[in-house]
Amino acid sequence: MHASAGPADGAMGGRALRAGFLLALLFAAGWYTWTAFAELSYLSSAGRLGPGFFPRIIGSGLVLFLAYSIFADLRRAAPEGDVSPYWRTAAVLALLCAVFVGLLELIGGLLAMVAFMAGALWFLNRGRTLQNVLVAILLPLAMYLIFSVWLNAALPRGLLPLPF
Question: Distance between CA atoms of 87 and 47, rounded to whole angstroms?
Answer without folding.
Answer: 45
